Amino acid sequence: MVYALCFVLFVIGLYCTLTKKNIVKIVIGLTIMEYAVNLFLVLLGYRKDGVAPIVEEGAGPLEFLARSVDPLPQALVVTSIVIGLGVTTLAIALCVRLYEKYGTFDISEIRRLKG
Amino acid sequence: MNTLLIPLLVAIPLGGAFFIPLVSRKVRVLADIIGNLATLSVLVIAVLLFQVRTVYSIGGWNASVGITWVLDGFSNLMLVIICLISFVATLFSSQYMERYTAKYKFYSLFLLMVAGMNGVVMTGDMFNLFVFLEIASVASYALVAFGGNHEELEAAFKYLVLASIGSTLVLFGIAFIYGATGYLNMASISQAIRTGPRTPILTLAVVFFTVGFGIKAALVPFHPWLPDAHPSAPAPISAMLSGVLIKALGIYALTRVLFNVIGITPIYGAVLITIGALSMVVGVFLAVGQWDFKRLLAYHSISQMGYVVLGIGLGGYILASGGKQSAAMLAILGGIFHLANHSVFKSLLFLVSGSIEYSTGTRQLKEMGGLLEKMPLTRATCTIASLSIAGVPPFNGFWSKLIIIMAAFQGGYPWLAALTILVSFVTLLSFIKVLRYAFLGHLPESLKAVRESPALMSIALVVLAIFCTCMGLLLIPGAREMILDPAVGALANGVGYAQAVLALR
User: Rounded CA gap, B309 and B288, in Å?
Assistant: First the structure.
């Protein structure tokens, strides 16, 4: 059920990316998509009443495994957030340069390439 | 000894990318030297490692928790292709890129892209694949925008948006796979899928991978960014993008995941055949009407990628539906061989277009003409590359297309063979147009002072032209068993990949 909500969020982001005219809004759409996937990854490792995946002193590995949430998706999400940051920064930088050149954020007016 | 060399394939370009901006602000020429040395040393390492089949665990961590890199036949072939083309491209850039300011930034991004691509073809871990995919992609977005003019920025933005959607879909697919199997290591995933039940989640993941990697490979209907992005980049980068980037990030990753991780089924094979045939036809018919030289080449990239996917998909289809084994192997061989050939002749064509643009200052075919006597060397290499891509014997493109056609006949799909021949014919037509308008006819008044391109650029052209002429020799017995068959075997082995990898480590 929660997974379906992630999917809905993803589709909202995709819709925003594909239909909006303002290039900054397109970048926001991309970010929403990314966060939908990040959320999905975190949810994959979630377990009800789980504890943070930090091994305590004295606790055996099996006992730890039985209680903690899955740490791997969290590591993946941290990496993917960093990558997302890089892409978003580059995208915004491109938006600024496009605005300098064309004087508009409207994608339908930024049309020199065709064919 | 050999295993120590493996991390250098990523470490050298990454280190180069870091050091070039540090040292070459003051001393300009250092950027050229470091850039060329880095790509040359990576090429040497890739060739040295060519016969090595091994699994390398990063940081010495056990494969169940750590990240592994796998070298098998297909990875080794891709590594050599990537490193060869990037070396030739840096050779070409050292003079070509003089026209741009901040050349050291160019080299830095270039090496970052090489590091990403080398990582993509070596990795045996799904999430690591995504990370390297993004390293190479982000570098390529910036490189497309490198000129900083209206068109470049617009193309780069379009490319960034579409390719980011692709990467996000790939990450979603990886998340599905992790949720379904609990592994990220390709070999372990493959084993878990084979022993466990095939859930619908896997099908969903395959759809996401196909669309995600399809966007990266610019297959029809995911192609609209390519004809803008590839012509907008500086010529050596167009050569890299068309020559190796769409293959390493798109075709290699897609086939690796479909064949070796999830396991090919007749349906996936049929999808690949459909996408391949569609790309072939749509790409070539869009290309014929183009007058911008680089844009025409970019459309041909789509069409030629269609051949590769058609060949590999046909092989997978025949394998999975239990058809003739020999025909399947032949089809995959044709696909992989065409991939290698295409990276050579398409990068040569893009470098030729760069060389013409360097001398004449235009990319429009209608504004050229009569360059025959002014630029004899460029003309000769351009003719070789054009005949290669059109599939005229004895150049390399002919042999790989011939293999795909033979495989289609043997597998019992004569209409696919007919389609291939038709597309090949239209390709020939459009390149006759290029040769006619660029090199024959009247020399316009404005181009009287044109001279041949400088020495290093010419060397780069000649090296690739020699490869174009000689690569047909890879098919002779002996060379074929050593170079191409391991790559075919790696794909055709299918989910047997898991055993092969687990046995190595």
Answer: 21
